Amino acid sequence: MTVLPIEAFAGTRLALVLGNSKYRTVPALGNPANDAADLATALRGMGFNVIEARDGTREAMANAVRDFSSRLSGADVALFFYAGHGLQMNGENYLVPVDAKIETPGDVRFNTVNLTDIQQEMEGTGRANIIILDACRNNPFLEKLARGSRAAPSRGLGRVDASGQGSLIVYSTQPNNVALDGAGRNSPFTAALLKHIATPGIEVRQMLSRVRGDVLAATDQKQTPWDSSSLVGDVYLAAPPVQVGGGSPTSTSTQPAAASQTAAGGVEQVAAAAPQATPPAAADRVTSPTPQSGAGGPDSECERAAAPAPPFASPEQLKIDNTHDFAAAVPICEAAVRANPDQPRLDFLLGLAYGGTKNYLAAQRYLTKAADAGYAPAQGKLGVYFATGRGVVKDMPRAFELFSKAAAAGEPGAISNLGAMYSNGNYVKKDEARALELYQKAIEAGNPFALAQTGLMYFYGKGTPRDYATAAQYFQQAADLNDGFSLKYLAVIQERGLLGAPDAAKAAELRRRAVQVDPGSQDPNVPKQLNASGPRRSSGGHHVRRIYYYRFVGCRWAWC
To answer: Which letter does DSSP use for residue 173 in this model?
Structure first.
């Protein structure tokens, strides 16, 4: 099995860019040809060899795909972009040429381009394969195909997961939803993509988080770009991060400049992933860029007194994060803010310190100041305040807005809290599959809380078929961080024999460890009838789940 290198940037980079606007049998679209032209220009400027076709007939599109396919074997990064009409039927997604005449389901198969064919052509080891689709507009053929046909298409494009290693599939909106065209030269999605795709030093998934935030803002939260990833390692479409000191990249992935941490002075969470399954670890987690201050001075003292844990924190770092003396930190950070009044980072830390002393009004004031300055960790923390009504009037729309902004900047706690909102249907429509994706993204970004939440999703079959084996892997990762709640779920799995014969002794040992390392952890209330309500693990033979891992800095743990 070939695994992609940790950092994919150099080498041969090939792109196929298609955009269809001038449809002959249905109303034309204003943006797609512009979207394709502008993205092709951007990609060429980033070193891609680009095959471009606009307003293509089926023959022209097929020829472009064949050309693209014939050159894939020598590529290290392959990218496919399509803008235009697209539709789904019987679980398959189809891209619509400008000359397509569609009256019956048979016309769909013979007069369009099947996305699956392109996806299968791109599958291959040793390279990153990226598919980007801005093709979720209203289906103009829906009424004709719906007449007396069991094969009538559904709304928008259907969900397709990245298969194999090294793939990323990006949709301009969530599956089965419709994207907006926009009134300008480009669609809202492509406009955001063009804004961020050439930014040097950001990994492709972080870039997509920024795109998602811009699209949410531009569409008044109506459109949420969606992606499915099986990438291995980090992929940079523009330029890789500058290495300090001129050295080569290390063997570990380039992490975001943000870190997950335990909440200042509290252990509540914004929303639970499953009924009666709320872990005690806080979703009230924020990210914290590496301190820029020197070894001395009030800013350094404030860092030591109130700073959150670093990215992918170890159990020791998480423990320290929970033992800050916030009463002592308040005057220290006040002095730092007075000495450096224009540093959002210090306003944020002072807000954390005030929150730790339960002076939520003062905390909210400083967090707001930092959030208004665009500091993502403060936006995420302030979102928790609005979600829980702490120091402010409870306001879920405002919480969603703040979480979305922080998540777009790569803040792991905000990504996890967005997952909680989708899991419970707080302000947004309940979407457990989307919640699971967000929890997994939060794990990749370094949020430890999301491990237990992801375990719960698989344990209860929320947004995915129930799978006790996969749930156990996430609970085990959280247990290795001394999360007593996850240790107790592992005990339940052993007590009930959900992964083999019951083992009371092993279950008792897990419960003893939970009491030892996390004495205040919540006891899970698992329904007694759960055993008979679903399979012990997912079935399907060939299907293999991808497990998202929480990687410690330095890779001192078994899964690194």
So the answer is: S
Tell me how far CA of residue 170 lies from CA of 91, 248, 443, 504, in angstroms. 17, 30, 19, 45
pLDDT recorded at residue 220 = 81
List helix spans (H) across 312-343. Answer: 315-321, 326-339
Q: Is the pTM of this model over 0.85?
A: no
Asked if the model's pLDDT at residue 235 lies above 50, the reply is yes
299 and 336 Cβ atoms separated by less than 8 Å: yes
Give the pLDDT confidence of 455-491 residue by residue, as tens digits.
999 999 999 999 999 999 999 999 999 999 999 999 9
Strands 128-134 and 77-83: parallel
The Cα–Cα gap between 269 and 370 comes to: 22
CB atoms within 10 A of CB 104: 16
Other C-beta atoms closer than 10 Å to the C-beta of 545 total 15
Q: Would you state the structure tokens that stand for residue 9, as one six-digit string?
A: 């940037």
Q: What is the 3-state secondary structure (H, E, C) of 92-124?
A: EEEECCCCCCCCCHHHHHHHCEEHHHHHHHHCC
Phi-psi region of 84 (alpha: psi -120 to 50; beta: other; left: phi over 0): left
Distance separating alpha carbons of residues 370 and 378, to the nearest angstrom: 6
The identity of residue 514, as a single letter, is: A
pLDDT at 119 over 70: yes
Task: Identify the helix (H) or strand (E) that includes residue 18.
Answer: strand 13-19
**What is the C-alpha to C-alpha distance for residues 62 and 70, in angstroms, rounded to an integer?**
12
Alpha-carbon distances, residue 443 vs 109, 219, 483 (angstroms) = 39, 27, 15
Question: 72 with 23: CB under 8 angstroms?
Answer: no
d(CA 38, CA 34) in angstroms, rounded, equals 6
DSSP conformation letters of 250-306: PSS----S------TT----S--SSTT---SS-S-----PPP---SSSHHHHHHHHH
CB 238 within 8 A of CB 200: yes
Cβ neighbour number for residue 464 with a 10 Å cutoff? 18
Count the Cβ atoms, other than its own, within 10 Å of residue 263. Answer: 24
